[in-house]
Amino acid sequence: MAMQRRFPVEFQVAFPAGAFLVGLVEAVTDFNAPQRADGSRPQQLDKDSGLPLWQFQIVDADAAAAKRERTASIKVAAPHQPVPPTNDSGLPFTPVELLGLTAMPYVDDSGNGRPRIAWSFRADGLCAPGKAPKHGNPDIKAA
Fold first, then answer.
1. Model pTM score
2. pLDDT tens across 96-114, in order?
3. 76 near 96, Cβ under 8 Å?
């Protein structure tokens, strides 16, 4: 049986203590594409869907998480920039839940000691905790 490279994982399994959005949702720059006349580069497109890729950083709220695993970069393939939920928590970072989360393991051999297994995450979108749509395809703008 062949395992898929990227497999679905429940948000609560990957981030049992929750997660917080840090910063903005930004377009992923395609550094393999040629520069435009103005010196900029186009947005990277998802290899499978052809949709533009967006990226944001989260902090894992698990106090037991290792230092190098406390932050994660999440990519979303979507026709429009995902809209984060409003932060009504009174905290400096926005609590979020990731919709349609998938994970792909890889070997991180960045030269900082021994190689380790790391994770690449993708999501269909993000919303406020407990506000995930119950049925159907998650709406990227869910908040």
1. 0.84
2. 999 999 999 989 888 777 8
3. no
